[in-house]
Specification:
The structure holds two protein chains of two kinds. Chain A folds into two domains: 3-54; 73-87 and 164-379, 2-Layer Sandwich (BirA Bifunctional Protein, domain 2). Chain A has helices at residues 3-11, 23-43, 65-84, 98-105, 107-110, 131-139, 184-201, 215-224, 229-240, 244-251, 272-281, 285-303, 365-379; strands at residues 88-89, 95-97, 115-117, 123-126, 149-158, 171-180, 208-214, 269-270, 310-313, 326-332, 340-344, 358-364. Helices cover 43% and strands 17% of the residues of chain A. The model of chain A is unreliable at 1-19 and 38-44 (pLDDT under 50). The chains are: A alpha+beta, B alpha/beta.
């Protein structure tokens, strides 16, 4: 209806923001202009509506000038730390078969991918994660290569966001690494140290916290209760959101069980004492082995002088179906949600025909950029 | 400093009274002022007063570390938050109500449901396999059946008086709601000491209240 006018409205972008202009100022000017145009549009019975090309889809954004440079620096810093630890860069296809991601991430997560069809009608997706693709590569293309494999990447991933309000971006760049073909304590410790080193190199020392857990602690307890799937999911959710009152009501049906360990969900986070408390309630073999492994990791972190930057969080049970041992989350002061996550996923490469242990993590480059950009602004 | 987002309105006075019992006090002058952001007497806490539906938004983004808000609002927002405490304030029920209490068993066609709580309503009827058309309203929901806009409503009920006076009866209860303490996931890790102190103080105040 108004295509003719559309071009004039685009041409109305009179000034190109200079490289050093604070980004938010430039953005604000753009937004004001859009608003004015909308108002004008209403006045002239939609004759000057905003042209489609001026709009950006929800959850997408530009980086310009100082912010783009900062983002690049963060990416370079992380990639140089990965390289120093002998991680080789891998660039995976941006578009792949949807099936790959369903096998790699599980159906619920994969469905958040942007999907479309190939010429032959097969379903494709814009990659919603990189790990799936790396795992397939390790199991197929590189099946003959000697282990361990160490890969790192800086790559955008695309996910539809409908639920969460705080994590609304649909394009995020992941800085990630995968250590494939070696299990156990040393590999777990390697990726934890790697994550800590990147955050320290980004000047976030004393401003970050990495929480660690072993999902087998919960899995062992759930198995000892022989819970049906829906009750297990309910228990998981109550621990994850730390709903004390509901959780206690739920566990009242299992009074003498090991689930007592989760009765006070606000006391499952802390340092070594958390493990001691859990041991008093938990005796099943599966959970005990997981507690041992977590304790060994904690002892190692203590001796490296990293205990201040880490916390044990036995209530981190958010993605039980994906991780098989260690799970970790990264929090940074100034960000309202976690800026990174990872763990051990020994079950993943088996989906592609070559079962072997694997561990890794990703950091969200966009979230880190936002935190550090805000800090630079506040300092100046 | 810990920032606490409080839902304005129905819950505000109860929440402030409970916080005062837990040792977090706003002085008289501050409480009577119309400022939307206030500090408590100790200077350890800052309060922001926002619309109930905005509490989960502020807390999920980490702009506020904690919040006090009804479970009804949380169910509707589906925000990703920690919910460590049930504060037991502003108790109410979320119900399905209609002029004709038997309408759900009588009707096999599409029912029209007017509500402020479209997520809760959709989940409730969806789980039971009842086809409904949701009509989103922002207030005076009780009017909708009388005027013919909807067959049913889903709404909060405290005493049931508003329902009765508008010729409606409760068909079924969906769930109960009380005021909750909600906590941002990142704040919970990064300010764990201060947050735990608040949680424990509130817990003590709640238990003290129960014994008295």
């Amino acid at each position: 209806m108004v295509t003719g006018i559309a071009t004039t409205a685009v041409a109305g972008c009179d000034r190109v923001p200079s490289a050093d202009e604070p980004i938010n100022q430039a953005q604000r000017r753009f937004e004001t202009r859009c608003r004015n145009q909308t108002a004008a549009g209403f006045l002239f019975t939609f004759a000057r509506a905003i042209p489609m090309t001026a709009r950006i889809p929800a959850g997408m954004r530009y980086y310009i000038g100082a912010e783009a440079r900062l983002r690049r620096t963060i990416e370079d810093t992380a990639m140089s730390v990965f390289a120093a630890w002998s991680f080789e860069e891998v660039i995976t296809p941006s578009v792949d078969y949807y099936d790959l991601f369903e096998q790699g991430m599980g159906q619920t997560e994969a469905q958040r991918g942007f999907r479309f069809t190939d010429n032959d009608g097969r379903l494709l997706a814009l990659r919603p994660d990189v790990t799936s693709s790396v795992a397939r590569m390790a199991a197929t293309l590189l099946s003959e290569r000697p282990r361990p494999l160490r890969f790192c990447y800086a790559a955008p991933v695309f996910r539809q966001q409908t639920q969460s309000h705080a994590e609304w971006r649909r394009e995020n760049t992941q800085l990630g690494c995968e250590l494939i073909g070696v299990g156990g304590h040393d590999a777990d410790l390697e990726v934890l140290r790697l994550a800590a080193e990147i955050l320290a190199r980004l000047d976030l020392q004393a401003n970050y916290c990495i929480t660690i857990n072993n999902v087998e602690i919960f899995n062992g307890v759930a198995a000892s209760l022989s819970l049906p799937a829906t009750a297990r999911e309910q228990l998981r959710r109550l621990i994850d959101t730390r709903e004390t009152a509901e959780l206690q009501r739920f566990l009242a049906e299992y009074p003498e069980s090991e689930a007592r360990a989760f009765l006070q969900p606000t006391q499952l986070t802390g340092k070594r004492e958390v493990l001691d408390a859990a041991r008093k309630a938990i005796a099943n073999e599966r959970s005990a082995a997981a507690l041992d492994s977590l304790e060994r990791l904690w002892t190692a972190l203590e001796s490296l002088g990293l205990a201040d930057c880490f916390e044990i969080d036995l209530s981190d049970v958010s993605s039980l179906d994906y991780y098989t041992g260690l799970s970790l989350k990264v929090f940074v002061r100034g960000a309202g949600t976690s800026v990174g996550r990872g763990g051990r996923y020994d079950g993943l490469t088996g989906n592609f025909g070559r079962p072997e242990p694997a561990v890794g993590f990703v950091l969200n480059l966009d979230a880190l950029t936002e935190v550090l950009a805000r800090r630079t602004r506040n300092d100046s | 400093m810990i920032t606490i987002a409080l839902a304005k309105g129905r819950m505000q006075d109860d929440a402030l009274a409970l916080l005062a019992r837990a040792g977090v006090r706003l002085d008289e002058e501050a409480r009577n002022s119309r400022r939307l952001a206030l500090s408590d007497e100790s200077g350890k806490y800052r309060f922001v007063f926002v619309k109930p539906a905005d509490v989960p938004v502020y807390v999920e983004h980490g702009i506020a570390d904690c919040g006090v808000v009804g479970r009804d609002v949380l169910l509707e927002s589906q925000a990703d938050l920690l919910l460590p405490l049930d504060l037991g304030i502003a108790r109410c029920r979320i119900v399905v109500a209609a002029a004709d209490a038997e309408i759900m068993t009588k009707s096999l066609g599409m029912l029209r449901v007017a509500t402020k709580y479209s997520q809760i309503a959709r989940a409730h009827f969806g789980a039971r396999g009842i086809p409904v058309e949701i009509i989103q309203l922002s207030g005076s929901v009780e009017l909708a059946p009388a005027l013919g806009l909807a067959d049913l409503i889903v709404d909060l009920v405290e005493t049931g008086r508003t329902l009765r006076e508008n010729g409606l009866t409760v068909v079924e209860e969906i769930t109960r709601s009380t005021g909750r303490l909600v906590v941002n996931r990142a704040s919970y890790q990064l300010k764990s000491e201060a947050i735990n102190e608040l949680v424990q103080a509130l817990e003590a105040a709640l238990n003290g209240g129960r014994q008295a």
